[in-house]
Amino acid sequence: MTLTKFATSNSSPTASFIALFPLFVFLGLFIGAGVYFQSQGVDYAFYQLPSVIAILPAIILAMLLSKQKINNAIETFIEGIGHSNIIAMCLIYLLAGAFASVAKATGGVDATVALGLSLIPADLLLPGFFMIAAFIATAMGTSMGTIAAVAPVALGVADQAQIDYALMAGAVMSGALFGDNLSIISDTTIAATRTQGCDMKDKFRENLVFAIPASILTLVAFSFAGQGQAIITQQPIEFVKVLPYLTILILAVAGLNVFVVLTLGILLAGLTGILAADYNVIQFGNDIYTGFTNMQEIFILSMLVGGLAALMQQQGGLAFVNSKVEGLISRFSKSAGDTSPRAAELGIASIVAATNTCVANNTVSIVVTGDIAKDLAEKHGVSPKRAASVMDIFACIIQGLIPHGAQALLIASVFTISPLTAVSNAWYCMILAVVAVAIVIFRKRA
Predict the structure, then answer these.
(1) CA distances to 94, 142, 185, 299, 405 from 294, in Å
(2) Are 269 and 108 in contact (CB under 8 A)?
(3) What are the φ/ψ torsions at residue 227 (nearest 5 degrees)?
(4) Which H or E run contains 439?
(5) Class of residue 121 by CB neighbours under 10 A (exposed 0-12, middle 13-18, buried 19+)
(6) pTM
(7) What is the overall mean pLDDT for the chain?
(8) What DSSP assignment string belongs to 73-132?
(9) Could you give the CA distance from residue 365 to residue 351 in angstroms, rounded to a whole number?
(10) Phi/psi of residue 66, each to 5°?
(11) Cβ atoms of residues 417 and 166 within 8 Å
């Protein structure tokens, strides 16, 4: 979605439920295909029909429903795609993908895992792997990439220490989702901050309010659940390869422009590989391109959703949703100056959570609900950084608790357990849900 409303006329559109039909078509196709393939026993059922294909019929329907002439409707769609915030979001996706690809290719992930393993006490393997996964995901900005890198190592350690697979899988998945939610360069962070209009460092600090207490409780829980011990063979630690991760974390939190941060991260990761390994400039270029292609689906989808949002807003669809959510907020608000922001935050959380349950993709759910959340935040005095944080937090919670999510499917395949078993041990997401609701309800507003 966009940072600001799409302007297609001087007057506000009339609320219309029919204008939401294209969104229902998109969700219906995406969810319906996932349910069908899941019933057929197909792996990664909800990823068989690409989201960028599922949205095309929705766009066509939005064009047909438009009261504008076809040329004007197409112009509205293109304006939505070309909005400056959509383009900025897509460029950040590309840079984030390039950094993750180059850092992995130059051995940054392996070096970070080796460093983490060297620091884990033998009797704290579960909380140790939670912390390793959390750091890598925060640095890489991807829970899937973290699970793919850490899970095989964790599986071997679980075998050696005779730790229950489900518990180890839960620890790794919990850490991966913690980092994905908190990371400055995560696609969920990019989407949340761009749609709500806040700086990434501000959203990061706001997220810490939720993530720190939830992570501490999770560490305690996994510590008490710890089983077995294992003597881990020490791997050579190449601290220099960890430096690109540490650099982008420090620079991003310091407030440096995200485009500059990611560009420096890519260059530093490439230089590290060239100086410390059998790596050359041609490989560097190819890995950057690989990172770009890894972001292809979310890049295209963000543009198409931006265009669809512009059409639905012009036709009054978003105004209809806002009016209904407004009614619920008014019903549960005792006074506009006190409980209204709380109700608005819970409304934002509910919308993004429900959407993520359907589409099984936290980034997509944030992009789809971005404009609605922004309108609610502006009307009820919720700061952009808090709105972005609430969206990302509750999308993360749901992503870690749905068995048809990519994270659960991937880690279940590595540990040869069911996805339902995997999510039932993702304790961080469960604890985060309780902590987040409590903070939203009881936290004082400035």
Answers:
(1) 8, 11, 14, 9, 18
(2) yes
(3) -130, 135
(4) helix 427-442
(5) exposed
(6) 0.70
(7) 80
(8) HHHHHHHHHT-HHHHHHHHHHHHHHHHHHHHHHTTHHHHHHHHHHHH--TT-HHHHHHHH
(9) 9
(10) -65, 140
(11) yes
Q: What is the pLDDT of residue 311?
A: 85
User: CA 123 from chain center: how many Å?
Assistant: 32
Question: What is the number of other CB atoms lying within 10 angstroms of the CB of residue 63?
Answer: 18
Per-residue burial over 138-157, b if 16 or more Cβ lie within 10 Å, else e, is bbbbbbbbbbbbbbebbbeb
End-to-end CA distance of the chain: 28
Upper half-sphere CA count for residue 167 (Cβ side, 13 Å):
22
CA-derived radius of gyration, the chain: 22
Query: Measured between alpha carbons, how far is 128 from 121 in angstroms, rounded to an integer?
Result: 8
Where does 121-199 have alpha helices with state H? Answer: 125-140, 143-161, 165-182, 187-196
The tokens describing 227, both together, are: 């089983």
pLDDT of amino acid 29: 87
Please, is 246 exposed, middle or buried when counting C-beta atoms within 10 Å of its C-beta (0-12, 13-18, 19+)? middle
Q: Is residue 236 helix, strand or coil? A: coil
Q: Which residue, among 146, 145, 149, has the nearest Cα to 134 in the 3D structure?
A: 146
CA separation (Å) from 365 to 187, 218, 399?
12, 25, 10
Are the C-beta atoms of residues 392 and 366 closer than 8 Å to each other?
A: yes
Give the pLDDT confidence of 182-233 residue by residue, as tens digits.
888 788 888 899 888 888 888 888 999 999 999 999 999 998 886 655 555 5
